[in-house]
């Protein structure tokens, strides 16, 4: 079945159709919308035969196999069953919603949300990968949020949707954690691998964590106690949504999850304890609360909770037959509950109320709908000849056949019967209170039968109730067997789907439930009075209260940690870094390693002393900014000397030229900034900062020392060996930059260019005031540029350019290259600015630095692209040797073109920054143009 | 020699961090510059210290590690771009906000006297 991989995406495509066809008639829109789901259903059903034979279809497209990410779908019995429910009931809901929604509602939007949800749900049941399953799982939460809040003008709808999203979303996060642990434990995120390693998972130490987290996801989604309260509040949704999401699909996702992971996780004491008790509690509580609801949909919602509890209870029991019963009840509940929701919607639609205190005696007005609703509620109550009876009978049988609670095991069948009694009672209330029991009271509309086709979906579902109830083997036998086998990951045990099993205990329980339920309904007034004594508690208010208290607590924490003080943030960040680096140093036994150290010489000592003094002086005098700048430049100078000392001539040259440029930049900046820093740090803060700085300095120094005294295991031998033969240059550092790691360098010069352009934009809009005096109140000198400097620097320019050309050309074989040559050229041009001023330069040097940056990056990129033309990978270099008369042997390398790009970018970026900053003080400043 | 080198790296780091934690933007820029010296020296040291062994083929018997040098070379240039960006940002912040405090506004109790002497309006 090759279509499986794109099959789930058909509905996704279908989300666009209603949006596009909404402008046509509603009927057209409904039919067009139904087309793609119908096609999907048809395609899936066409494979049903093979699946009934025990086949399983799987299809996958790998994405990142190393971490188990793939697009993978599977179609087996369980997936088939759920796909039929999702698509089949989905199609009926589309038809139903066509009549349910009023003319004011945007039907296109509604259908789009609905189909999106359908897609998500289909993705959940067809997923063959854990992460992908979770992704679709969260998509169902999000799309159901959109559906529940469809009537966003109602506060109820907004609150209900938010609550549903919060609960199911939080459960989804727990599920993600559970699935990740599960996948890591097994070593695979493929569902089949997980299902096949059940015994291994159950033995692993992570098993309890996995079970609890995954069950949290399942219980929140399937509205199990104590997370059940979101479901009744989600009833603010339009009824088609309730019929779809809250009977057949979304709330069944949790059940699906438990069934899906049944072979991997179930059948342990922990599973039994959690799942059975939760299911039992939910089953009883839902049934009890349902009886006291006055809202039709409220009754159905709580009954849904109860039935979900029943299925959960069955899944918890751990016997194969109980799992079969669970799967069977999934089918039956979806059928009768969807039809009941639709009937409730019809009643609401045609009488204007859902309150059972007003709705009485509707039989006279809508006998046809009443008959349908009565059949469906009989199924809900578990009356014989209905499908609900069959699965409930299986449920009763299973409660009798388990002994996990030891000598207290008799409790389970007794409580199950009690739940059955409540179920009969609330079903009876749905029938008797609404369709009989006197006359309607103050209804907004006179009730009448709905439009013909609005009834069709209900008729189909009710017919299914009866057909499955009377001919179970013929109707669902194959499907049930295939789904149960897929759930168990093995052949399902033999079971009997007959209506009549003779006089036995389960039948007695059914009889007790029906008679007891009727008696209870008869005496309901006493129960209602008893129930009225309890103080009313609204879970919605409790939930909102909890959310608000969380929000205010979070707000307080944020207010405490984020006081918008950069100093505090940096302190915390650095403190954390210090703790993390220092703690790993504690594990290092000896600071010094085995590597012999270089003997100390006097020159190095002098350098180190100078560096230390000037670094400390920078800190000490940092509030006198010019002084700090001078000491800083001494530090920079010694750093470049250190590079020269330790065999890095390229670095020394680079550092030296950058040093010049940096100091000029900072001096220019200082012109616009205060000349001195006020003394404002409290002594406490100084001590605090000093301690942190010393701690980090000590840690870094220690790491540095430990690193240097240990033997080196480097990958650089490759570069040294291949530099000449592969890159055509003897200066390995330059060959690495322009050839081996050319792609990195391309990235670097791009960043450089972006930074320069960013600075250019920052400068061009700067609203600066011109300081007329320096920090001491002395006026700035108005002298012309000194003539001596001007003359010398002018005559030096060609020489400097020549030097940089030389440095550039020899860079491949000797220290030098594009970076250094670019910086030297920049320094030479800056010197002209210093000596002559911006006005003088403007008329003489007409270089557009932005174009220079752009062309530099383009040249570098193109030289890389050029290698494609010769069938090589990006940035492969080429070189060869040529002979010319007079000059002799010389080398041409494509890497030089790349280096030219680097050169142009460096010159352009440096000059764009400095020239623009420099001209701020002159008549060329952009701000004056703007204001004049 | 390694000990002295490591001491200098540690000292530069400490000085850089102390200045980075100050409240005025120019001090922070100076601190970042000191810090980037320290970082560059540190990265360079990961190739171990060697005397008279520049990686120019045919110029010496043994070679130092060229890879950290190549990394540090680009780091120096990018470091300049970063310093420039930070200092221009500081200027822009002063121009738009009227002060050069890193938070964009002066602390709750500004020291009036020193503030006046520091300003140059």
TrEMBL record, chain A:
Output one GO BP term: monoatomic ion transport
- Asked if Hydrolase is a keyword of the record, the answer is no
Q: Where in the cell is it found?
A: Cell membrane; Membrane
Q: Which GO terms describe its cellular component?
A: plasma membrane
Cell membrane keyword on record? yes
Residue span(s) of domain NADH-Ubiquinone oxidoreductase (complex I) chain 5 N-terminal: 63-111
Matches recorded under InterPro entries: CPA3_Na-H_Antiporter_A (IPR050616), MnhB (IPR007182), MrpA_C/MbhD (IPR025383), MrpA_C/MbhE (IPR046806), ND/Mrp_TM (IPR001750), Proton_antipo_N (IPR001516)
TM spans (from-to): 6-22, 29-48, 78-98, 110-127, 133-152, 164-187, 207-231, 243-264, 270-292, 299-317, 323-347, 368-390, 410-428, 460-486, 498-521, 569-590, 602-621, 626-646, 652-674, 686-708, 745-763, 787-809, 815-835, 847-870, 890-915
Q: Which residues form the Na+/H+ antiporter MnhB subunit-related protein domain?
A: 789-911
Going by the UniProt record, its keywords in alphabetical order are: Antiport, Cell membrane, Ion transport, Membrane, Transmembrane, Transmembrane helix, Transport
What membrane topology was assigned to this protein in its record?
A: Multi-pass membrane protein
Q: Which GO terms describe its molecular function?
A: antiporter activity
Q: What range(s) does the NADH:quinone oxidoreductase/Mrp antiporter transmembrane domain occupy? A: 127-400
Source domain of life is Bacteria
Q: Where is the MrpA C-terminal/MbhE domain?
A: 685-768
- Domain named MrpA C-terminal/MbhD: residues: 611-675
PANTHER family under this entry?
Answer: NA(+)/H(+) ANTIPORTER SUBUNIT (PTHR43373), NA(+)_H(+) ANTIPORTER SUBUNIT A (PTHR43373:SF1)
Listed name of the protein: Cation:proton antiporter
Please name the source species: Marinomonas ushuaiensis DSM 15871
Organism classification, top ranks? Bacteria, Pseudomonadati, Pseudomonadota, Gammaproteobacteria, Oceanospirillales
TrEMBL record, chain B:
Q: Which GO terms describe its cellular component?
A: plasma membrane
| Alphabetized UniProt keyword annotations | Cell membrane, Membrane, Transmembrane, Transmembrane helix, Ubiquinone
Its domain of life reads: Bacteria
Q: Does the keyword Cell membrane apply?
A: yes
InterPro entries tied to this protein: CPA3_antiporter_subunitC (IPR050601), NUOK/Mnh_C1-like (IPR039428)
- Where is the protein found, in the record's own terms? Cell membrane
Q: Which PANTHER family match?
A: ANTIPORTER SUBUNIT MNHC2-RELATED
Family in the record: Belongs to the CPA3 antiporters (TC 2.A.63) subunit C family.
The protein's name in its UniProt record: NADH-ubiquinone oxidoreductase subunit 4L
**Species of provenance:** Marinomonas ushuaiensis DSM 15871
Per the UniProt record, the lineage of the source organism begins with:
Bacteria, Pseudomonadati, Pseudomonadota, Gammaproteobacteria, Oceanospirillales
């Amino acid at each position: 079945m090759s279509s499986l991989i794109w099959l789930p995406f058909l509905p996704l495509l279908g989300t666009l159709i209603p949006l596009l066809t909404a402008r046509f008639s509603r009927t057209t829109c409904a039919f067009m919308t139904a087309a793609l789901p119908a096609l999907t259903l048809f395609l899936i059903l066409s494979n049903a035969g093979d699946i009934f034979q025990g086949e399983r279809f799987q299809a996958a497209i790998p994405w990142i196999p190393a971490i188990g990410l793939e697009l993978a779908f599977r179609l087996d019995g369980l997936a088939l069953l759920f796909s039929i429910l999702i698509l089949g009931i989905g199609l009926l809901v589309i038809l139903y919603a066509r009549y349910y929604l009023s003319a004011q509602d945007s039907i296109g939007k509604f259908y789009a949300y609905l189909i999106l949800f359908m897609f998500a749900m289909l993705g959940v049941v067809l997923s063959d990968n854990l992460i992908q399953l979770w992704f679709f799982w969260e998509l169902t939460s999000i799309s159901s949020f959109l559906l529940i809040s469809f009537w966003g003008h109602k506060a109820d709808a907004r609150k209900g949707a938010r609550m549903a999203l919060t609960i199911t979303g939080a459960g989804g996060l727990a599920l993600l954690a559970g699935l990740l642990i599960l996948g890591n434990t097994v070593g695979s995120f493929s569902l089949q691998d997980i299902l096949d390693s059940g015994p291994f998972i159950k033995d692993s130490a992570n098993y309890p964590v996995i079970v609890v987290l995954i069950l949290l996801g399942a219980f929140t989604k399937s509205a199990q106690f104590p997370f059940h309260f979101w479901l009744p509040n989600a009833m603010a949704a339009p009824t088609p949504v309730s019929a779809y999401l809250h009977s057949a699909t979304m709330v069944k996702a949790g059940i699906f999850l438990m069934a899906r992971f049944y072979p991997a996780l179930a059948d342990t004491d922990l599973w039994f304890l959690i799942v059975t008790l939760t299911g039992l509690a939910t089953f009883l509580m839902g049934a009890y609360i349902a009886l006291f609801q006055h809202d039709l949909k409220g009754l159905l919602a709580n009954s849904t909770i109860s039935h979900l509890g029943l299925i959960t209870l069955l899944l918890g029991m751990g016997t194969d037959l109980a799992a079969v019963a669970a799967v069977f009840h999934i089918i039956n509940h979806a059928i009768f509950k969807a039809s009941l929701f639709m009937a409730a919607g019809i009643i609401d639609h045609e009488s204007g109320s859902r309150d059972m205190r007003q709705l009485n005696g509707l039989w006279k007005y809508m006998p046809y709908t009443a008959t349908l609703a009565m059949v469906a509620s009989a199924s809900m109550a578990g009356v014989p000849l209905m499908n609900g009876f069959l699965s409930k009978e299986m449920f009763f049988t299973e409660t009798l056949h388990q002994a996990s609670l030891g000598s207290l095991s008799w409790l389970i069948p007794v409580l199950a019967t009690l739940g059955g009694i409540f179920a009969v009672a609330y079903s009876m209330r749905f029938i008797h209170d609404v369709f009989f029991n006197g006359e309607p009271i103050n209804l907004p509309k006179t009730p009448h039968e709905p439009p013909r086709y609005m009834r069709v979906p209900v008729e189909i579902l009710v017919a299914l109730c009866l057909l499955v109830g009377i001919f179970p083997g013929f109707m669902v036998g194959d499907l049930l067997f295939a789904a149960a086998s897929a759930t168990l990951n093995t052949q399902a045990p033999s079971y009997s789907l007959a209506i009549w099993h003779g006089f036995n205990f389960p039948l007695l329980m059914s009889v007790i439930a029906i008679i007891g339920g009727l008696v209870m309904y008869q005496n309901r007034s006493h129960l209602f009075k008893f129930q009225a004594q309890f103080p009313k508690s609204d879970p919605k208010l409790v939930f909102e209260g909890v959310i608000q208290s969380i929000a205010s607590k979070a707000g307080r924490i944020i207010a405490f940690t984020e006081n918008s003080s950069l100093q505090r943030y940096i302190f915390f960040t650095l403190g954390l870094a210090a703790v993390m680096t220092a703690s790993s140093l504690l594990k290092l036994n000896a600071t010094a390693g085995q590597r012999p150290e270089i003997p100390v010489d006097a020159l190095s000592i002098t350098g180190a002393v100078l560096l230390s003094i000037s670094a400390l002086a920078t800190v000490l005098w940092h509030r006198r900014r010019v002084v700090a700048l001078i000491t800083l430049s001494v530090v920079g100078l010694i750093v470049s000397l250190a590079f020269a000392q330790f065999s890095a001539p390229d670095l020394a040259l680079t550092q030296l030229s950058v040093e010049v440029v940096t100091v000029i930049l900072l001096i220019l900046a200082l012109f616009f900034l205060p000349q001195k820093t006020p003394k404002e740090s409290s002594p406490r803060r100084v001590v605090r900062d000093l301690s942190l700085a010393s701690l980090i300095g000590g840690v870094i120094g220690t790491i540095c020392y430990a690193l240097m005294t240990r033997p080196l295991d480097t990958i650089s031998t490759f570069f040294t060996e291949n530099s000449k033969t592969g890159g055509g240059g003897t200066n390995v550092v330059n060959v690495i930059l322009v050839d081996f790691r050319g792609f990195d360098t391309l990235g670097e010069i791009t960043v450089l260019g972006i930074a320069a352009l960013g600075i250019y934009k920052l400068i061009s809009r700067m609203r600066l005031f011109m300081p007329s005096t320096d920090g001491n109140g002395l006026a700035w000198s108005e002298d012309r540029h000194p003539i001596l400097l001007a003359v010398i620097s002018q005559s030096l320019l060609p020489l400097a350019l020549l030097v940089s050309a030389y440095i550039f050309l020899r860079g491949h074989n000797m220290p030098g290259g594009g970076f250094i040559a670019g910086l030297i050229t920049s320094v030479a041009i800056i010197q002209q600015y210093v000596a002559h001023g911006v006005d003088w330069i403007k008329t003489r040097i007409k270089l557009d630095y932005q174009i220079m940056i752009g062309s530099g990056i383009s040249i570098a990129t193109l030289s890389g692209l050029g290698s494609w033309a010769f069938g090589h990978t990006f940035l492969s270099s080429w070189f060869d040797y040529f002979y010319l008369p007079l000059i002799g042997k010389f080398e041409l390398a494509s890497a030089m073109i790349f280096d030219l790009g680097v050169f142009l970018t460096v010159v352009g970026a440096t000059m764009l920054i400095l020239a623009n900053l420099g001209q701020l003080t002159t008549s060329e400043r952009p701000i004056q143009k703007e204001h004049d | 020699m390694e000990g002295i080198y490591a001491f200098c790296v540690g000292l530069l780091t400490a000085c850089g961090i102390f200045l980075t934690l100050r409240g005025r933007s120019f001090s922070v820029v100076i601190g970042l510059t000191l810090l980037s010296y320290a970082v560059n020296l540190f990265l360079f040291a990961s190739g171990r210290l060697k005397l008279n062994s520049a990686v120019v083929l045919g110029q010496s018997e043994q070679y130092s590690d060229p890879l950290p040098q190549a990394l540090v070379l680009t780091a120096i240039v990018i470091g300049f771009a970063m310093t420039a960006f930070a200092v221009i940002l500081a200027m822009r912040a002063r121009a738009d906000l009227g002060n050069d405090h890193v938070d964009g506004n002066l602390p709750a109790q500004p020291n009036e006297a020193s503030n006046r002497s520091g300003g140059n309006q």
